[in-house]
Amino acid sequence: MRRRAEAVPRGAYQVTPVFVAHAEGAVLEDVDGNRLLDFAGGLGCLNVGHRASRVVWAVRAQLDRFLHACFHVTPYESYVRVAERLNQLAPGNFPKKTLLVNSGAEAVENAIKIARAYTRRPAVICFEDAFHGRTLLALSLTSKTHPYKSGFEPFVGDVYRIPFAYCYRCAYSLKYPSCNLFCAYHLEDTFRRVVAAESVAAIIVEPVTGEGGFIAPPPEFFPILQEICHHHGILLIADEVQTGFGRTGSLFACQRYGLKPDLVVTAKSLGGGLPLAAVTGRDEIMDAPGVGALGGTFGGNPLACEAALAVLETLEQDKLAKRANDLGERFAARARTWQQQWPLVGDVRGLGAMQAIELVRSPQTREPAEEETKEILRYCYERGLIVLPAGSYNNVVRLLAPLVITDEQFDEALQVLEMALETIQKARMLTTPEPAKNAKDSP
């Protein structure tokens, strides 16, 4: 850590002081020989697990052929094969094409470029609590100010933000389902009061928010959103960077909602641990930019392409989407007992294995328990479990375990998390002063 502080800028933050030496499946081993269960998955990049066997063999085989040959100079088949597979698998029964790049943020920026080229419109609408990356346009679409945005102004223009379907903290102080999905229909009001519909190229949305706190909207939200977009000729971009490739119980979270977006952005677990991202969409939209308008030196590099093909095979052969649903049900059932037992657990939510608990200081006020969340994360990693925070208020504990985790490992991890919650809840009860008595209650 001393060497890290001297050599690496403080902005490149890490959640734990654990330096990894080896990893396999859902287990990390650090440089001191400690073994830890991994509920972070390289920040959602390892749905198929650390060093998945098919991925390792595919990468080794590619090492014997060539390491780099820029696709824009001398193409190679694996890039085309990945594009063909994603075109086949992505939601929507229509012809598609795929562009490969390096990261989620890069894919988001290219999706916006493509949408603007196709519609000839400038504006983009995004959502509160969204995270779309850290590069300039992606950061402009990202919601959370600290630590992501503060100090990096000015941002890209013609970006407009509206509330998401965050039912636990409704922006309109309504309750589902009696709200009749006011947040979705309110988009029409946005066209009257904020930005004209005919100026909007695209709406970009995460089917389940990632860094924003694993917020899963009601099932009616996306059909309403899609209908409004189609009515106004606005493209709908689904950011599946964190939700994709089995995490939510289907290959894409869109499939859980019946959503057929015009463009889908993927990354993270696509590469099985190697950097790879993609934009997949309707062929006529993807062809809107001219020749040479899209690309990048390392986009769709050969090692990552072979890894991606192995990832897709592993997801199918090992039925990992079904496994995600099983894990999610096990977590949610246990977490709901925590919610009944401890006021600290305000909300339990998610889709498939993309599950989370939101921690609050009071179920009545729903004041975010940010400091308590930090204490829980520390308690966990000191006892062999790596777990990550999320949420605009830094008070969400999220589940990003590799889907190959065993039942025994999963139960052990949940036991550690349960102990952490119990310990912090008891500590709060000891340190929180009793409310003052009214004078009439005094003897």
User: What's the main sheet like?
Assistant: 7 strands, mixed
- In angstroms, what is the radius of gyration? 22 Å
Unreliable spans: 439-443
- Shape type: globular
Summed up, the domain count is 2
Q: Distance between termini?
A: 58 Å
Short description:
The chain has 15 helices and 15 strands.
Structure in words:
- With about 450 residues, the protein is of the alpha/beta class.
- It folds into 2 domains: about 160 residues, Aspartate Aminotransferase, domain 1, CATH 3.90.1150; about 260 residues, Aspartate Aminotransferase, domain 2, CATH 3.40.640.10.
- Helices cover about 35% and strands about 15% of the residues.
- It contains 15 helices and 15 strands.
- The strands form 3 sheets. Strands 4-10-9-8-7-5-6 form a 7-stranded mixed beta sheet, with helices on both faces. The chain has a 4-stranded mixed beta sheet with strand order 1-2-3-13.
- Helix 4 packs parallel to helix 12 and helix 14 packs across helix 15.
- The longest helix is centred in the C-terminal third of the chain and has 25 residues.
- The C terminus is likely disordered.
List the helices and strands and how they pair.
Elements: H1 2-7, E1 20-24, E2 27-30, E3 35-38, H2 41-44, H3 53-63, H4 77-89, E4 96-101, H5 104-119, E5 123-127, H6 136-141, E6 159-162, H7 182-185, H8 187-193, E7 200-205, H9 221-232, E8 235-239, H10 254-257, E9 263-266, E10 277-282, H11 283-286, H12 302-317, H13 320-341, E11 345-351, E12 354-359, H14 370-382, E13 385-386, E14 388-390, E15 396-398, H15 407-431
Parallel strand pairs: 3-13, 5-6, 5-7, 7-8, 8-9
Antiparallel strand pairs: 1-2, 2-3, 4-10, 9-10, 11-12, 12-15, 14-15
Helix pairs in contact: 3-12, 4-12, 13-15, 14-15
